[in-house]
């Protein structure tokens, strides 16, 4: 195809996808796929400037505003940003900045790039008078009534704020609220929102602001027009009632690069989606000297992380059998890049998910990786269902052992294999037994586990330790397996030997008791110093353990009934787990306190904050109740904060916790 024809084709595609993204709120491509189309068009226009169309979509930003709202011209255009995907591209950008200034590299400010809908707020007489969407960059949609429903947007500024102010930022929806809205749409038989950004954008286009208020949108500012210094302006906004970006930094480019690396994983713990980091020259004077093109400012750039969402086609549905027998549908997909890796499969959680999604073979779907290791299908691509396609059948027998399937509890969603000797259940239990969160047995991977199951020598994971009764015979057995050299077999035996005295909490988790996760296992180990003590515990003693309620206690009792002599059997195999050191709780600053952590803390993850609270003597719970005596809250605290205030529970922040930690 000749360059001019290709440019025309790409321009039509870009315009159509912008229309679907900005106007219809029904995208059929992921952001990364769209960026690739636009990049190809820009590259062709740069290579063949004489053939480039003066009305190319690359010369404009976004899409024309919809007709449902009044169209208002921006006083200062809302430009887009150039993207960078590597350190080299950022250094090239800095080179252009230095060249444009004719001076040494300036200082920058960086903050997370929230994945939402851009909004420009205008205050006159310190009162909110106008809210405009980006629109096409020159003209936006006046959605002022909708903006007034967003709690993060002050309707009136304090006396120290200027009379007239224009603030730009991002409207977004938290992931939890997005999931709640999708559950509501599932119940109503409506199409799901593909992602929180799509939901936020669609919400801001609603004509009834009462519905907008129910959606509980949020807002984070990223620019004050006319501010002399970006970082100082953001600090002032926080003092005037705006939410503050939870992660930001100022400094030279090396500081920016360090920030980008630090946020690669940390951002995934935030309650909202981010897709990159925005770098800006701090000084307004220098920004003015650098100026803008007709599309982007020369003084800012967006570093984009690998895409966490993509679109692909479902080719088949297979079923996996877990260690408790749960049957989980898995979508077999056309290979696609997500978050830097190739994805060919994605979980669908349970059979009900197939119905909620309306999934059929051949459908195109949005998949995402997010903070989960396993990709998941989140929604159908609008209009992608093939004609006359049928939904995949729900298994009537176990796909591995052909045994009976059913639901083991009333009201349960999951379908389970009911055959206690199902080889797939044993394989999943063996993998869990040796996983990092359990006994961390290096070498006990999928290939070896598959051969161990095929050998039919072990009925329970802990029976692997019978290989140590006669190490020579154990070595001969393992090294006789396919692709198991003698050295590898010896390493596995050494790992099993070392596991015999690993912490009791790890052993309890490794046993695979349903509903007993790593944290609950540690709490049980703290209360009962041995397996024998736990097996002899009564119902009242079990439920006295933090996080052990009637269901967990029942699961423990059922497991113990199936394996009544397990403590003695393990002891005969040389298993003597290490009991945890008694945790000092008395005489510490928070002894006797029951604490809950909520919201986004400035520097600590939730796990880090909980660890500090525990070290100070507190018990940490997952939800606020009348037993709670302390709430540690960060930004976007939500319902837990409201409940704590309702119950008159003291609320503290990270600074208080750090100060208290320093006294010990």
Helix content: 25-40%
Total domain modules: 5
Number of helical stretches of at least 4 residues: 24
**Coarse morphology:** globular
The span between the termini is 72 Å
Indicate the multimeric state: single chain
Portion of residues in beta strands equals 15-25%
Instruction: List low-pLDDT spans.
Output: none
Note the main sheet: 5 strands, mixed
Return the CATH architecture of the largest domain: 2-Layer Sandwich
Strand order of the largest sheet: 2-11-10-3-9
**Structural class by secondary-structure content:** alpha+beta
- What is the highest CATH level, the class of the largest domain? Alpha Beta
What is the H level of CATH, i.e. the homologous superfamily of the largest domain?
Answer: DNA ligase/mRNA capping enzyme
Structure description:
The protein is an alpha+beta fold and 664 residues long. Helix content is 36%, strand content 18%. It is built from 24 helices and 22 strands. The strands form 6 sheets. Strands 2-11-10-3-9 form a 5-stranded mixed beta sheet. It has a 5-stranded antiparallel beta sheet with strand order 14-13-12-15-16. A hairpin with a 7-residue loop joins β15 and β16 (376-380). The longest helix is centred in the first third of the chain and has 21 residues, at 3-23. The protein is globular and about 80 Å long.
């Amino acid at each position: 195809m000749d360059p001019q024809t290709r440019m025309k084709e790409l321009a039509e595609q870009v315009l159509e996808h912008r229309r679907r993204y900005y106007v219809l709120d029904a995208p059929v491509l992921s952001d990364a796929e769209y960026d690739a189309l636009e990049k190809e068009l820009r590259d062709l226009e740069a290579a063949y400037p004489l053939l480039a169309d003066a009305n190319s979509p690359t010369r404009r930003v976004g899409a024309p505003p919809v007709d449902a709202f009044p169209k208002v011209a921006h006083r200062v255009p809302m430009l887009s940003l150039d993207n960078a995907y590597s350190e080299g591209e950022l250094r090239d950008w800095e080179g252009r900045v230095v060249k444009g200034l004719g001076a040494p590299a300036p200082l920058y400010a960086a903050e997370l790039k929230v994945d939402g809908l851009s909004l420009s707020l205008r205050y006159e007489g310190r009162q909110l008078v106008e809210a405009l969407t980006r629109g096409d960059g020159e003209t936006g949609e006046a959605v002022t009534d909708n903006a007034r429903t967003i709690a993060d947007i002050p309707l009136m500024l304090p006396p120290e704020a200027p009379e007239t102010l224009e603030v730009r930022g991002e409207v977004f929806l938290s992931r939890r609220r997005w999931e709640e809205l999708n559950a509501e749409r599932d119940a109503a038989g409506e199409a799901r929102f593909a992602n929180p950004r799509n939901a936020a954008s669609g919400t801001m286009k609603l004509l009834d602001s009462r519905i907008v208020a129910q959606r509980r949108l949020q807002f984070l500012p990223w620019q004050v027009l006319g501010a002399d210094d970006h970082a100082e302006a953001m600090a002032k906004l926080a003092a005037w009632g705006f939410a503050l970006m939870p992660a930001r930094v100022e400094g030279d480019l090396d500081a920016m690069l360090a920030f980008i690396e630090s946020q690669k994983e940390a951002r995934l713990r935030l309650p909202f989606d981010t897709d990159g980091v925005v770098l800006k020259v701090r000084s307004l004077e220098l920004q003015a000297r650098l100026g803008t093109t007709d599309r982007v400012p020369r003084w800012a750039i967006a570093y984009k992380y690998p895409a966490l969402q993509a679109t692909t086609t479902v080719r088949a549905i297979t079923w996996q059998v877990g260690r408790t027998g749960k049957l989980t549908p898995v979508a077999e997909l056309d290979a696609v890049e997500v978050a830097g890796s190739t994805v060919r499969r994605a979980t669908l959680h349970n059979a009900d998910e197939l119905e909620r999604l309306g999934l059929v073979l051949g459908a195109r779907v949005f998949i995402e990786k997010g903070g989960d290791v396993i990709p998941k299908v989140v929604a159908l691509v609008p209009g992608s269902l093939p004609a006359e396609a049928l939904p995949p059948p729900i298994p009537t027998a176990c796909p591995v052992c052909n045994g009976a399937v059913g639901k083991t509890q009333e009201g349960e969603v999951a379908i389970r294999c009911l055959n206690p000797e199902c080889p797939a259940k044993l394989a999943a239990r063996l993998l869990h037994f040796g996983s990092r969160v359990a006994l961390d047995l290096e070498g006990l991977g999928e290939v070896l586990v598959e051969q161990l199951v095929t050998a039919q020598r072990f009925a329970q994971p802990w029976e692997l330790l019978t290989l140590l009764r006669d190490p020579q015979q154990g070595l001969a057995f393992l090294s006789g397996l396919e692709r198991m050299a003698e050295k590898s077999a010896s390493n596995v035996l050494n790992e099993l030997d070392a596991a015999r005295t690993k912490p009791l909490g790890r052993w309890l988790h490794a046993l695979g008791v349903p509903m007993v996760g790593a944290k609950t296992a540690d709490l049980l180990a703290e209360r009962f110093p041995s397996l024998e003590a736990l097996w002899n515990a009564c119902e009242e003693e079990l439920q006295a353990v933090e996080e052990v309620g009637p269901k967990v206690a029942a699961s423990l009792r059922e497991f113990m009934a199936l394996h009544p002599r397990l403590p003695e059997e393990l002891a005969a195999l040389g298993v003597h787990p290490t009991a945890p050191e008694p945790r000092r709780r008395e005489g510490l600053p928070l002894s006797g306190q029951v604490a809950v952590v909520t919201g986004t803390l400035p520097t600590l993850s939730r796990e880090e904050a909980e660890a500090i609270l525990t070290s100070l003597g507190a018990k940490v719970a997952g939800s606020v109740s009348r037993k709670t005596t302390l709430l540690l809250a960060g930004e976007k605290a939500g319902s837990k904060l409201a409940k704590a205030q309702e119950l008159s529970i003291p609320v503290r922040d990270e600074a208080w916790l750090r100060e208290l930690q320093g006294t010990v």
